[in-house]
Amino acid sequence: MSGVVTIRVSATDQVGVTGVTVWAGTNRLAVATQVTATEWRAAYDTRNVRNATYPITAKATDAAGNTATSTAVSLTIAN
Question: What is the DSSP letter of 54?
C-alpha cells in the first residue's frame, strides 16, 4: 500500500462501541470514525513511513470504558 489508505474496522459490543483507534505496536496510527453501527474507518498517510510490513491492530472502547484489541493483521507499505 502507498499514499493515503483507508483502514476499515468492524467493532461491536453489547454496551455500544464509542471509539476505535488503529495501532502499529505502541504507535497510534489513526482514530477511526464511525460509519455504521458496526463499521469504523480511518485514513492513514503512509508517505512518511518506512517501507516494511507492520502488524496492525484496532482497539475498541465501549460506553462502560472497557477496551478490546483485535488480532493483528499485516500492512505492507511500499511507497
Answer: E
- Structural domains present in the chain: 4-77 (2.60.40.10)
What is the model's pTM? 0.89
Q: How far apart are CA 11 and CA 17, in angstroms?
A: 7
pLDDT at 1: 73
Place of cell 475498541: 60
Which residue(s) pair with 4 in the sheet? 45
Dist CA 53 CA 49 (whole Å): 11
43: which strand partners?
6
> 69 φ, ψ to 5°?
-115, 135
